Amino acid sequence: LEMTSAKSIFQFVDNIKKYNIKVIGLINNAGVINRYFKQNEYGIESTLMVNYIAVVMLIKLLMPLMELNSKIVNVISVTSNKKIDKSLFNSTKESYSQLGDYSKSKAALAIYTSKLAESIGDNFILNAADPGVIHTNILIRHRWYDRLADFLFRPFIKSPKQGAKPIINAFLSNVGFYLFKNNSKKEYPKKITNNYLKDWLWDQTNIIIDKIEQDFI
Fold this sequence. Notes:
There is one protein chain. The protein is of the alpha/beta class and about 220 residues long. The chain has seven helices and five strands. The protein has a five-stranded mixed beta sheet, sandwiched between helices. Helix 2 (about 45-60) links the parallel strand 1 (about 25-30) and strand 2 (about 65-75). The two termini are about 20 Å apart.
């Protein structure tokens, strides 16, 4: 599926229904760090769409197809401590920052995960995972200093196999609402669970998704 496209997301879920595919869990690992500002047909900036809005849409659409105690893992980031404000959904070409908007999208997912845990209770096993900085193409920023950064930086970052460990550990866990990082887990950070914009983010996100759903349901 194409995570920038609401139509693709709904077609993906419809195919799961059509072929009666059993869904035992969901790992939300898709992520982009787009160099340039661009929006989809709903006016949503594409980094925010892929890293956050599409993830929430998939969770909402797939949960009714999942058995109780199915696993949900949201992959956040080392940048998820980035502060967000009420301009989150109003990014413009002038305000857009490649790393800044990526960080805010991952921070939004981390905060939303906290609120989702309150909403679903014990019906699902929800966890977050932070793989760290991984040697993948997502780090290619199409800048003049990419080759220099590759030479100095990439030898010291994690391999994809190392980055997958906390994600797999989170998925295999039989307890929920933990943050998995490296080979360990810890309780979900209080600075995220107590974020003062948590309820606002939940409400605004649902408003956006409800508006999109009107075109498909």
